């Protein structure tokens, strides 16, 4: 039964739905009552823990593949990454965003950072006013998510992946690059234009 609940919650989260949608679905299909909010959150936490664990393993394996490609298994290796951000909604009005770093050598994701301006605990109406909450969520604008996410990815590259991202492949926007260009030392990161972004801009120009 626990596995069934986990799969049910996992399916709902994949399509961006929560407790209310689960209750409606169970009612329409004449199924037993759905999970309580507390049980739903517990299933979410369990799924989140599993997703983080598997994701870290996959990205560590990808980083190991880069070190093998560079023929340096144990030391820190310099490599190039393509960095780009995406948002849940267009127009820099989204509450949620994600920044990813993809290896230009293997084409695999080696790190990512999710950012959100929404915190359930901070926005809770029942929170105690005298309790100080340490919130790690994004405090700036939606447009600043990409520089912040890129900085966090580059900051932990040596400790978490044993890699040093010295070649930055990105689009014409230089905000994220400006945030990381001196992270390993003065002008330690070089910016290179990503051909994919150039091609996209040309296609959009021809369409217009």
Please explain how this structure is put together.
Residues 3-203 form the Mutator-like transposase domain. The chain is of the alpha/beta class. Helices cover 44% and strands 19% of the residues. The chain contains seven helices and five strands, in the order αααβββααβαβα. Strands 3-2-1-4-5 form a five-stranded mixed β-sheet. A hairpin with a 5-residue loop joins β2 and β3. α1 (2-14) crosses α3. It is globular and about 60 Å long.
Quick structural summary:
The protein is α/β, with parallel strands linked by helices. It has helices at residues 2-14, 19-28, 37-69, 145-155, 157-161, 175-180, 195-207; strands at 77-87, 96-103, 109-116, 163-170, 190-193.
Task: Detail the topology: elements first, then pairings.
Blueprint: H1 2-14, H2 19-28, H3 37-69, E1 77-87, E2 96-103, E3 109-116, H4 145-155, H5 157-161, E4 163-170, H6 175-180, E5 190-193, H7 195-207
Parallel strand pairs: 1-4, 4-5
Antiparallel strand pairs: 1-2, 2-3
What features would you highlight for this structure?
Mutator_transp_dom; 208 residues; Mutator-like transposase domain-containing protein; five-stranded mixed beta sheet; alpha/beta
Hey, roughly how much beta strand do the residues contain? 15-25%
Count the DSSP helices: 7
Strand order of the largest sheet: 3-2-1-4-5
Question: What fraction, in percent, of the residue positions are helical?
Answer: 40-55%
Biggest sheet: strands, sense, closure? 5 strands, mixed
SS-based structural class?
A: alpha/beta
Helix and strand string, N-terminal first?
Answer: HHHEEEHHEHEH
Nearest-angstrom radius of gyration?
A: 21 Å
What overall geometry do the principal axes of the alpha carbons give? globular
First and last CA, distance: 55 Å
Total number of beta strands: 5
Overall pLDDT: 85
Q: Would you identify the regions where 5 or more consecutive residues have pLDDT less than 50?
A: none
């Amino acid at each position: 039964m626990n596995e069934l609940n986990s799969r049910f919650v996992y399916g709902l989260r994949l399509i961006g739905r929560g407790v209310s949608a689960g209750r409606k679905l169970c009612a329409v299909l004449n199924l037993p009552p759905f999970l309580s909010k507390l049980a739903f959150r517990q299933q979410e936490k369990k799924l989140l823990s599993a997703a983080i664990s598997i994701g870290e393993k996959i990205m560590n394996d990808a980083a190991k593949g880069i070190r093998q490609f560079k023929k340096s298994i144990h030391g820190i290796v310099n490599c190039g990454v393509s960095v780009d951000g995406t948002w849940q909604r267009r127009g820099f009005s989204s509450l949620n965003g994600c920044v990813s770093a993809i290896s230009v050598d293997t084409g695999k994701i080696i790190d990512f950072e999710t950012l959100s301006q929404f915190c359930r605990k901070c926005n809770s109406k029942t929170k105690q006013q005298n309790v100080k909450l340490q919130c790690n969520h994004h405090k700036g604008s939606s447009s600043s998510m990409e520089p912040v996410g890129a900085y966090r990815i580059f900051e932990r590259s040596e400790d978490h992946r044993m890699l040093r991202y010295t070649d930055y492949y990105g689009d014409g926007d230089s905000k994220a690059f400006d945030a990381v260009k001196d992270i390993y030392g003065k002008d330690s990161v070089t910016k290179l234009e990503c051909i994919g972004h150039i091609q996209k801009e040309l296609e959009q120009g021809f369409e217009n």
